Batch of 2 targets.
Target 1
Amino acid sequence: MATNHNHLVIMAGGIGSRFWPMSTTEFPKQFIDVMGCGRTFLQLTFDRFEGVVPPENVWIVTSQKYKDIVREQLPEVPETNVLLEPCRRNTAPCIAYVAWRIKMADRNANLVVTPSDHFIVNQKHFQEVIKQALTFTSQSDAIVTLGMKPSRPETGYGYIQADMSSPSLKNKNMFRVDSFKEKPNLETAKEYIRHDDFFWNSGIFIWSVSTIVNAMRIYAPEINNIFENMQQVLGTKDEQEWIDREFPKCPSISVDYAILEKAEEIFVLPADFGWSDVGTWGSLIQLMKKDANGNAVVGPNVKLFETTNCIVHTAMEKKVVVQGLDNCIVAENNDTLLICKLSEEQRIKQFSED
Amino acid sequence: MATNHNHLVIMAGGIGSRFWPMSTTEFPKQFIDVMGCGRTFLQLTFDRFEGVVPPENVWIVTSQKYKDIVREQLPEVPETNVLLEPCRRNTAPCIAYVAWRIKMADRNANLVVTPSDHFIVNQKHFQEVIKQALTFTSQSDAIVTLGMKPSRPETGYGYIQADMSSPSLKNKNMFRVDSFKEKPNLETAKEYIRHDDFFWNSGIFIWSVSTIVNAMRIYAPEINNIFENMQQVLGTKDEQEWIDREFPKCPSISVDYAILEKAEEIFVLPADFGWSDVGTWGSLIQLMKKDANGNAVVGPNVKLFETTNCIVHTAMEKKVVVQGLDNCIVAENNDTLLICKLSEEQRIKQFSED
């Protein structure tokens, strides 16, 4: 496997509304040092592929308004590899665009497509899994999804059901996907995890650029045609002007619906490297280092008294004192303050809009 | 009574440490619009004397570092009437200084001395009481204290016991002071309010400038001598230089200890105009307008959900959302945030120092 055909696509166009006010439309979650570790989620995603994908093969697809943030946070990535969507159209148009763009640069490219705001615990294990998948897709027209071994009946994730009876001949760790399952209710989730053929859908996909383009041609021609017709301008100075005009014509649809659920040659590679989509404050607090009272804190000068099981994220405040709270979120950013019970976090989007 | 001999002395040198972080050493409580009414405590104190004391007879004694704040908040007061202490020496040196300064300007001056950070409900009644007291002290060498009719066994205030058997012949509402009582414990406070001769000590005094100077000469000569020796420079360009050198030599002592407890001709004028020294968040919340859930809020954009009996003072934040709190203080100022139970507010000074 030639390393220089490995490419990484980081989708970084989300707005992270569930983490308001830490995350805002102007500066969403993926660009924030959420964990207080010194690196933003976008940077951690980039770091995770060190030694697997060279920086010149890393592609970021994001909104035009985040261009400067991306450039500042990942100066290693060439400016021409930062692709700018003029509007949000979910993941299928995003992936079609970047696939055609990469195809023009390297028609033998082999791609990992990943969200920019997930968390992975064991980087070494993660890289081993990614390398297996890249080897597999470099030798076949398969699409590989990474399936996480579920540790609890999570209702916030989609699930992948695998056909465990027929592992791939090329890699016995790979199984054909039987079906994709939407986020289940708790009863269904409990049923899923009683079986060993259900996995959390990580949203990380591995496939060669020719596989993507062929899949787009077959399953999403109305999207594919827009970019295929644009081949000659991709990588030229006219690219952005064309994208600004043509991209909004794409239907807004996820790659899961548009491609993955319809594709024939689709496999799941079960893995257990410790993964979270960090979709809620509750999932974030689980990942963070906690004090003896179960509090997770990010902020330059935060003092807690008689406070338990709280998450305090107040990076912009000079000094914070919290006394007497339990199971709360305290989040401050950009002169905006939220204090609410962790149990009520599904209302945060409403709070931010009121 | 010639109006133009009425003078007002506002003592505005405190640091308001119990209201951190709303109040800070750099910008203490008396300079803040604590109630969210559009005027600071200092301005409200000034406003309260409209029609009784002309602005050119208003004197502010404060710390040098608050000079610009005072000038900005009370531009009506002449710059030469803002006296600047180089260090804090409690109230006796403060009053001796301003008394000598006023004496040089108006030897028939009749003074009201008041803190800058108290709250008074009924301004009309307050002015009637003040006018009675000024009339009384313009015709005698008496010192008049305003005694508040107690509404509860408050342990945070000092008390004045009056000799109710002998009202003044000049004004039957005035009674001689029997004794001053320090802040009592609850049991003692309950005993006090069972009798009708105990009053809260408001810290507001009325006396003529000659009465003050004579009392200082008799009871606090070590303080008086410093300013009496300085007579010729008071009101000249050399005043500040002398004050900076001599004022620190004063002992730090309250006017209560130095003068009032020793004075012979001292009266209390009982009053009931609604008064609070606003010494605690708990007393502040009692004074403020509250919503149906008992919350008092100051801030440009504060939204509360399932929140009860809280005080939220977040004037610097652009937006605040609080959900699920009860009986808490949420105070933000100058990039510093405090969240704590109202019941723990006596620990705020410790919180601010930690």
Note: Chain A touches chain B at residues 21, 303, 305, 314, 316-325, 328, 330, 332, 334-341, 344, 347, 351-352, 354 (CB under 8 Å).
Target 2
Amino acid sequence: MKKTNVFGVILAGGIGSRMGNVEKPKQFMEIGKKPIIIHTIEKFVLNPQFERIIVLTPRQWVKHTQDMIRKFILQGDRIDVIQGGETRNETIMNSINHIENKYGLDDETIIVTHDSVRPFVTHRILEDNIRMAKKTGACDTVIPATDTIVESCDHKFITNIPDRSCMYQGQTPQSFKAKKLRDVYGALSEEEKAILTDACKIYVLKGEKVELVNGEVFNIKITYPNDLRVAESLLGGDASC
Amino acid sequence: MKKTNVFGVILAGGIGSRMGNVEKPKQFMEIGKKPIIIHTIEKFVLNPQFERIIVLTPRQWVKHTQDMIRKFILQGDRIDVIQGGETRNETIMNSINHIENKYGLDDETIIVTHDSVRPFVTHRILEDNIRMAKKTGACDTVIPATDTIVESCDHKFITNIPDRSCMYQGQTPQSFKAKKLRDVYGALSEEEKAILTDACKIYVLKGEKVELVNGEVFNIKITYPNDLRVAESLLGGDASC
């Protein structure tokens, strides 16, 4: 195994305690005859810079995810499927602890964290993330806001319309020097942890630099039922993805 | 003609001086075998609350737009096609002046302004706009931000990640009591006019109330080439639009 000290971290949900009787998390829905999460994992597998790819899923879906990987991915031996935490950030912490225990962690270890339901991430975006995280220590993938952004804190009247030229829509990957991320997160109070659901926001509030990486309009998160149709049309499309 | 004092204002571009040799503005691209702008106009035509529907296009596209309306829309007699202005807000002012000259304007005259390239606006959204504009004087159609919103004023590092629960993505329609909008806009300096490209922002900066109307995720603006495919899949889809 090549020791690159760069790890893919694919976030596919936490312990799943609040999921009730939902049939199947959306990462297992199929587009182009494969589960969405498989498309996503493939993008990481194709990049030799990733020493390992850690996939974090709800407890009860670990085995199913492993089965899917065995079924669809030839080079599945670089992938570990483990259980996520109670929140997105706890899930990321699980991945860092796993890397430390199994592969060793130092100040330069990079994690590239990515939503399992963003299968259209590109090689270029992954490369830019790795390069920028090595250089700056943290980066976030964004696109310029296409819509006007409107602020309303009472959810009834507009309180502000910020200058659109400063506004971006966050995507993933978000990439970090893993040890530092764990240190900064560990120093938060329980209250802060509850509020700071975005890993990059932890850095911003602590005055740490997070550099921007250009995303792509088509690097969509499959969230709504209609996104599945959009995703099918993106898959059937030209070489842009 | 029913005197409702409510007017649809469909924004399809200004004088077009900066368009160079572009072949066809995107509102004339076809989805479901009809130009996008026709789909949009139809949504307004189907609502009897609109006394007239004013369509504003670049000068050189006025005739073509009229031809398209004659070809595709049976009740085309409620539609006026006129030339837009140099900016989005100037185009809106053209519509207000046109209404004043041809149909009369009073304090209660409502305009429902809408992007010509948002064909998936619904009857419910139009009704809510009319009701809210009558009540509050101004409203903006928005959806809760699906992505995390990231602010970067230097376009290199994140400067802020605002609380997502306060953030919305602006769509259209934006609806106003027309006379007041013209008054508020008219009181701006030339400098302010150049900066305030969003009509609702004029109100917000002047301390005037703008109420939120719930949009729809599928009320997309057709901006990028890929949006055309998305739009086709929305058209072919279920009854949600």
Note: The radius of gyration of chain A is 18 Å.
